[in-house]
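Because discrete structure vocabularies remain unfamiliar, we reproduce here a specimen of the format, pairing a chain with its fold in token form:
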Amino acid sequence: MQGLHLTADLHDCQCGLQWLTDGRALGEVCTKAVTAAGLQAVGKLVHGFPATPQGPGGVTATLLLAESHLCIHTWPEQRGVTLDVYVCNFGADHSAKAHALMACLVALFQPSHSERNELQRGRVAGSVR
């Protein structure tokens, strides 16, 4: 149950628009980033949203990992992205891999600024970590 949950809210992303609007391209780059970080994807679901009067539609991408999950939501009309990386550390500590995955994705989107959070989850009662 113990794990590391990383989140990032990315603002004013300077990346190419395809990373905010093209579900196929985003899904592929996420799969590559997961593998490069040493994590194992076991499923993927990507959904593209239609354009609105405010601009092109965004993308929601979720990769199920043997270690837990990666979720991305894009708002191209705001050039914004939210990232969510959670890894369970049962049997091995995957924290460094989670940080590597997050760093890869932040670099892809090239935000002008971001807010990041890190949460240790699932501490077993009585354990110190």
